[in-house]
């Protein structure tokens, strides 16, 4: 299994709107080949930070989705959202065990 971890920090106190957007997301990725699940987390010690973990059967499935659908997956981003500069990051993991 492959996991992509995307993180970012909100600069303008719109965390509640961003979290609500994730709850009500259109779920476009759910039917992507190789997609397993999406977990969205926010650390207790920094509620302006969002961690988005997508689980895939393999890295190739993630790369195909990322290349072809990244723009449409961001359609629900709240208007006016500003991120802390240089905070968005994507890290990739091999899943060893649960």
From TrEMBL:
The keyword Oxidoreductase applies. It comes from the Bacteria. Residues 2-93 form the ABM domain. It comes from Pontibacter oryzae. GO terms for molecular function: monooxygenase activity. This is Antibiotic biosynthesis monooxygenase. The keyword Oxidoreductase applies. Keywords: Monooxygenase, Oxidoreductase. Gene3D superfamilies: 3.30.70.100.
């Amino acid at each position: 299994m492959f996991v992509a971890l995307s993180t970012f920090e909100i600069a303008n106190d719109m965390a509640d709107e961003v979290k609500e957007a994730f709850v009500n997301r259109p779920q476009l990725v759910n039917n992507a080949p190789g997609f397993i699940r999406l977990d969205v987390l926010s650390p207790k010690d920094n509620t302006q930070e969002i961690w988005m973990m997508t689980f895939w059967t393999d890295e190739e499935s993630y790369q195909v989705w990322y290349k072809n659908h990244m723009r449409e997956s961001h359609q629900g981003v709240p208007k006016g959202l500003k991120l802390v500069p240089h905070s968005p990051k994507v890290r990739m993991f091999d899943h060893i065990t649960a």
